């Protein structure tokens, strides 16, 4: 059963997007590999790539791409 | 010389590289080996290209498998055709952009993202092909239900009501359609971009501008928008 408060919160986030500065989709793609390797090395990826977390919050397609790359590298690193 | 990948990206045809780029200094040994072999000639080069294609195909199959549930009508052979096509397109992209690799990640992570991107775009388009894109709100009922929420959530319900008004009054028709399609109706941005004959980046800019307008309007209406929105956790 869905939680109305959580549904509202999710809608507000989706409609208003991130409050702060964010990367563009092109900048996100450019930096995505570096960001994921830093995340998986337990480094401070958000500090190294400012605006990435905000963009991933605001852009569903880039968020999806990030989840895929993170999971692939985590499980299939040569 | 240019060619168009099947996902619509225009890419230069891969060409033999004259030398390992100086920007590659400080690479990890595995990434260095990839660059040296892909930038070389002869059997070592050909073997490296074949291994790179295998790597990209693995990534494309991973993506297809991950999204398989969203495409229940596709048969197994269709899945693999799509993965092969994605790996082929990604190989062209990676070889064309080798000089752009700055060594800020491992080479394999950098290469993977091209295969994932090609597969994801193809899969999203396949999932939405022959479907009319919903550009009008399908979730207004959920937003309207805000007034019926418990008292402790009344503020968010009030904000949602104001947002609905702002969307109707403050945005252009194009901004409203893009915002509604992507955020309320779940239309992927690259699918919408293809239908509207524009780019993913241009559409996201439209979405970004629409969100800024909404924030300004809500602030003018007295809402605390500094704390609204933010990260999905």
Record field, number of beta strands of chain B: 2
The number of distinct β-strands of chain A equals 0
How is the biggest beta sheet of chain B arranged?
Answer: 2 strands, antiparallel
Q: H/E element string of chain B?
A: EEHHHHHHHHH
Write up what this structure looks like:
The complex is a heterodimer of chains A (78) and B (233). Chain A is an all-alpha fold. Chain A is built from five helices and no strands. Chain A has a domain at 23-76. Chain A has helices at 4-16, 25-40, 45-48, 52-58, 60-76. In chain A, helix 2 runs parallel beside helix 5 (60-76). Chain A starts with a helix and ends with a helix. Chain B is mainly alpha-helical. Helix content of chain B is 60%, strand content 3%. Chain B contains nine helices and two strands. Chain B has helices at residues 29-38, 42-66, 76-96, 107-128, 140-144, 154-170, 173-184, 189-195, 200-220; strands at residues 2-4, 10-12. In chain B, a hairpin with a 5-residue loop joins strand 1 and strand 2. In chain B, helix 2 packs across helix 3. The model of chain B is unreliable at 1-5 and 7-24 (pLDDT under 50). Chains A and B meet through helix 1, helix 2, helix 4 and helix 5 of A and helix 2, helix 4, helix 6, helix 7 and helix 9 of B.
